[in-house]
Design brief:
Layout: E1 2-4, H1 5-16, H2 26-35, E2 39-41, H3 45-51, H4 61-73, E3 75-79, E4 91-93, E5 105-108
Parallel strand pairs: 1-2, 3-4
Antiparallel strand pairs: 3-5
């Protein structure tokens, strides 16, 4: 399984803004992901440029970069966000626990 460096970036920014749903140390989050076998997917210029090709369904820049990464890398994006699930491509919406914050992962095609 992969996780995007953009997700850690989002946590760092939003936890710094005291958003309760992002009350986690981004360094601890990253270390935990790596220690549990996740591989980090860096954000590249190709990913950034691909954001411009996405339809204007959702304006969240972090979600849009994850969608672009999944498209470019040929992986499935797992999300709890139904709006993200409206994009065409390999996106799977997974229900989380009621009231739990959305979680997003990118996984290689099997």
């Amino acid at each position: 399984m992969l996780y995007s460096a953009a997700s850690v970036w989002e946590v760092a920014i939003k936890s710094g803004l005291d958003r309760r749903a992002f009350d986690v140390d981004p360094l601890i989050l990253r270390r935990g992901l790596l220690e549990n076998g996740y591989r980090e997917l860096a954000v590249t210029g190709t990913h950034v440029a691909a954001v411009d090709l996405l339809p204007p369904i959702h304006q969240d820049p972090f979600d849009r970069i994850l969608i672009a990464q999944a498209r470019i890398e040929g992986v499935i994006l797992l999300t709890a966000d139904r709006t993200v699930g409206r994009y065409p491509g390999s996106i799977r919406v997974k229900r989380g626990r009621p009231g739990a914050p959305a979680q997003r992962h990118v996984t290689p095609h099997m």
